[in-house]
Design a protein that fits this description.
Blueprint: H1 2-37, H2 41-52, H3 58-64, H4 67-87, E1 102-105, E2 114-119, E3 125-129, E4 138-139, H5 140-146, E5 151-154, E6 158-159, E7 169-170, E8 174-176, E9 179-182, E10 193-200, E11 205-211, H6 213-218, E12 221-226, E13 230-233, E14 236-237, E15 250-256, E16 261-266, H7 279-288, E17 291-296, E18 305-307, E19 310-311, E20 323-324, E21 326-330
Antiparallel strand pairs: 1-2, 2-16, 3-21, 4-20, 5-18, 5-21, 6-7, 8-9, 8-12, 10-11, 10-12, 13-14, 13-17, 15-16, 15-17, 18-19
Length: 332
């Protein structure tokens, strides 16, 4: 009887395991179609606009909807965004600095948690980089510590064909403290790159230019790398109502009328509600802080903010804080 009882228990355990596996697979297979075709249009609109905001996975939306349907969903999502925007007072934030010359704000919404650092003196903002740039990256946290930074955010775009690489190779050149630190190949230093962010010797931030590394050095630029998209340029909003409004974690740098520098990180991919921000959200937030120039840095799983010795946002990467080739930091 003992063997028979053990056999029955073994079969029962197998049945339970099979049932649990079936439930997991069934839920996974049916969850997305239910979310897209179910009664909750806001959920559907958010999912589709977010998918269409990515470069690599737009095909997923096209499994379920044709181009005309996707366009209509995005238009409906835009109207919802505009309704939220119109309800805002639109009053700029009155910045009050701490003793360290930095003001900290946390303008959270139903869609995301954000952190803003406003740096009074723009000349304190520099680009730092991995000690082995071009070969292996490092975390924002560790690069910031190496520079004894007071605050930092992750930097520009980098090449990452695997989707979770070493953060080694910047997408373009990197200029730090008036020196070209990447690429090492001098034959490429006269090649023009689009979507350049730069800070000159007077602390003036420029976004969206087309320059070579050597050209910037001749123009007394101290810090520069390649990143996009810019959301505000020379006082003009660049994100229009018909833009695809994917919701993602975001990292942004901007400059206000008084030349103060604005660091912004927006968390996302944390449950069904805190999914992230659209480019329109980014533009609105930067306008709240009187930005006249603003550009997105590498976002998604790379989004990281460091302040006073620790990471103060919640990076969304499943593997923890992601390695990057460069950062923007604030000198002590």
């Amino acid at each position: 009887m003992g063997k028979l009882e053990n056999h029955r228990k073994s079969n029962k355990i197998k049945e339970i395991i099979i049932f649990i596996l079936f439930e997991i697979i069934f839920t996974g297979v049916t969850a997305l179609p239910f979310a897209l075709y179910g009664p909750f249009k806001n959920v559907r609109n958010t999912i589709i606009s977010t998918i269409m905001g990515t470069g690599a996975h737009q095909y997923i939306a096209k499994w379920f909807f044709n181009d005309a349907q996707i366009a209509a969903i995005i238009k409906e999502e835009n109207r919802a965004e505009n309704a939220i925007d119109n309800n805002k007072k639109g009053e700029p934030v009155k910045v009050q600095y701490n003793d360290d010359g930095i003001a900290e704000y946390r303008p959270d919404t139903d869609k995301f948690n954000a952190i803003v650092l406003v740096i009074k003196n723009p000349k304190r903002v520099k680009i730092g980089y991995s000690s082995h740039i071009g070969y292996v990256g490092d975390t924002t946290h560790d690069i910031a510590k190496r520079y004894n930074a007071l605050a930092a955010i992750n930097g520009g775009y980098y090449e990452d064909t695997s989707g979770n690489g070493t953060g080694a190779i910047p997408s373009g050149f990197v200029i730090s403290d008036g020196k070209i630190v990447y690429p090492k190949d001098s034959s490429k230093l006269d090649d023009k790159m689009d979507s350049v962010m730069s800070i000159d010797e007077d602390g003036n931030l420029s976004v969206g230019g087309s320059y070579s590394a050597n050209e910037l050095i001749k123009n007394n630029v101290k810090e520069a790398f390649v990143t996009e998209p810019y959301v505000i340029k020379d006082g003009e909003n660049k994100i229009q109502e018909n833009e695809v409004l994917g919701l993602h974690p975001r990292t942004v740098i901007g400059q206000a009328e008084d030349k103060s520098i604005i660091f912004l990180t927006i968390d996302g991919r944390q449950g069904l509600t805190k999914v992230g921000a659209s480019l329109k959200d980014v533009q609105n937030l930067m306008r709240d802080f009187k930005a006249v120039n603003a550009v997105c840095l590498d976002g998604g799983g790379s989004t990281t903010m460091y302040y006073k010795g620790e990471v103060i946002n919640n990076p969304s990467s499943a593997t923890g804080e992601r390695a990057v080739p460069d950062i923007l930091y604030v000198e002590q």
